[in-house]
From TrEMBL:
<dbReference type="InterPro" id="IPR051535">
    <property type="entry name" value="Siderophore_ABC-ATPase"/>
</dbReference>
<dbReference type="Pfam" id="PF00005">
    <property type="entry name" value="ABC_tran"/>
</dbReference>
<dbReference type="InterPro" id="IPR003439">
    <property type="entry name" value="ABC_transporter-like_ATP-bd"/>
</dbReference>
<dbReference type="GO" id="GO:0016887">
    <property type="term" value="F:ATP hydrolysis activity"/>
</dbReference>
<keyword id="KW-1003">Cell membrane</keyword>
<dbReference type="GO" id="GO:0005886">
    <property type="term" value="C:plasma membrane"/>
</dbReference>
<keyword id="KW-0410">Iron transport</keyword>
<dbReference type="GO" id="GO:0006826">
    <property type="term" value="P:iron ion transport"/>
</dbReference>
<keyword id="KW-0813">Transport</keyword>
<keyword id="KW-0408">Iron</keyword>
<dbReference type="InterPro" id="IPR003593">
    <property type="entry name" value="AAA+_ATPase"/>
</dbReference>
<protein>
    <submittedName>
        <fullName>Putative iron(III) ABC transporter, ATP-binding protein</fullName>
    </submittedName>
</protein>
<keyword id="KW-0472">Membrane</keyword>
<feature type="domain" description="ABC transporter">
    <location>
        <begin position="2"/>
        <end position="236"/>
    </location>
</feature>
<comment type="similarity">
    <text>Belongs to the ABC transporter superfamily.</text>
</comment>
<keyword id="KW-0547">Nucleotide-binding</keyword>
<keyword id="KW-0067">ATP-binding</keyword>
Length: 252
């Protein structure tokens, strides 16, 4: 479980997170949703200790993340940021291998190589494995980054808008792969999604944020209702239910 207790965060005079307390249960997929600037990425980056905690406490599986050495933390939590800086003069297989570095200090074992190949296969990257990142399309590069994160084989997987740039097929495949990985290995996936319908179809629970606070934490059926959506996003949407799953209509 990830336990977030009374976390506040500000930059200068601007409050970005206000007294956030949230338990994310072990296993399954938790989707973080909310308008631009709601604080989703900031919360994710604090869980992965990419920035110092200013107030409150965060633990992952009982481990206090802000007091755990980076190398140890990297074996427990993997994060894919929204716009990671990676050099383009890197081949896909090299990038995915980076996911194994926290485990072997750069020296890859046979098991590491096998995990890299599995991640390449899982994201349909085998044919692209020897290509430089700069020669890939945006979606192919995004898949390589997700594969690197999965190859880290951590108990907690944090993904910030990983569906960016993915076409419908690969967006669905990624969500299905995350579900499969979570189910087969008991991994806990926390994923920032802008498409609430992806959240409804694939997430086990949804956490909605607004203005630096958590405003809802429940199942898709409870959160994806017109009044709740209005409260979270500030405009009216219709919701239909298809095969038991809410589908949000937000185009008109
Ligand atoms: N480095 C920074 N310097 C100043 N303000 C920042 C910085 N990073 C984030 N913020 C501000 O913090 C607030 C929350 O940003 P954050 O990226 O966490 O939101 P978000 O919910 O992930 O948004 P989005 O959906 O647009 O990615 C925003 O108002 C943003 O402008």
């Amino acid at each position: 479980m990830i336990r977030i207790e009374n976390v506040s965060f500000s930059r200068g005079s601007k409050t970005i997170l206000q007294d956030v307390s949230l338990d994310i249960p072990k296993g399954g997929i938790t989707a973080l949703v909310g308008a631009n600037g709601a604080g989703k990425s900031t919360l994710l980056s604090l869980i992965a200790r990419l920035q110092p905690l200013q107030a409150g406490q965060i633990t992952a599986g009982g481990l206090p993340v802000h007091a755990t050495p980076s190398r140890e933390l990297a074996k427990v939590i993997a994060i894919l940021r929204q716009e990671p800086l990676v050099t383009s003069r890197l081949r896909v297989r090299e990038l995915v291998s980076f996911g194994r570095f926290p485990h072997g200090r750069g020296k890859l074992t046979n098991e590491d190589h096998a995990l890299v190949e599995r991640a390449l296969q899982q994201f349909d990257l085998t044919d692209l494995a020897d290509r430089f990142l700069e020669t890939l399309s945006g979606g192919q590069r995004q898949r390589a980054l997700v594969a690197m994160t999965i190859a880290q084989d951590t108990e907690y997987l944090l993904l910030d808008e990983p569906l960016n740039n993915l076409d419908m097929y690969f967006a669905r495949e990624l969500m299905r792969s995350l579900k499969a990985v979570s189910k087969a290995h008991g991994k806990t996936v926390v994923i920032v999604l802008h498409d609430v319908n992806q959240a409804a179809s694939h997430a086990d629970r949804i956490v909605a944020m607004k203005d630096g606070r958590v405003v809802a934490n429940a199942s898709a059926r409870e959160i994806l209702t017109p009044p709740m959506l209005f409260d979270i996003f500030g405009f009216e949407m219709e919701v239909e239910t298809i095969n038991g799953t809410p589908v949000v209509l937000h185009f008109q």
